[in-house]
């Protein structure tokens, strides 16, 4: 069953955040917000848009960041989120394949190693990244 996404009009968002609708239009023109559109071309803001707007407002109101700076910060946040997802995926891969990797290393002789070692120990490390 598909869940209906809650949406807000530009006037509702403007009132909710005490900003002028023109400010929201400016953020859209600058590419900072990308609300969806209704069939009648009305801007529809979803919860993810409101979360992004809150970040924009915190940066501009509380920290005095200009819109060019906001764009850079938002892009960096998106890249960091993507890197975090990639890292978590890689860590999950390592956790599920640790035995195979360990067996591959155990099968190597000293003569096959780039750097001769007396003993190879593979240690499993499990950390919950959400606690950091």
Structure description:
Strand 2 (36-37) and strand 3 form a beta hairpin. The relative contact order is 0.09. The protein contains five helices and three strands; from the N terminus they run E-H-H-E-E-H-H-H. It is 55% helix and 6% strand. A three-stranded antiparallel beta sheet has the order 1-3-2. The chain starts with 6 loop residues before the first strand and ends in a 26-residue tail after the last helix. By secondary structure, the chain is mainly α.
Write the layout of secondary structure elements.
Blueprint: E1 7-8, H1 10-17, H2 21-29, E2 36-37, E3 43-46, H3 47-62, H4 67-96, H5 98-106
Antiparallel strand pairs: 1-3, 2-3
How far apart lie the N and C ends? 35 Å
Q: Determine the fraction of residues in helical runs and give it as a percent range.
A: 40-55%
Structural class: mainly alpha
Number of helices: 5
Question: Using only CA atoms, what is the Rg?
Answer: 24 Å
Average pLDDT level:
86
Specify the biggest β-sheet: 3 strands, antiparallel
Binned strand content: 5-15%
Order of helices and strands: EHHEEHHH
How many DSSP E strands?
3
Largest beta sheet: strand ordering: 1-3-2
The unreliable regions are none
- Overall shape: it is elongated
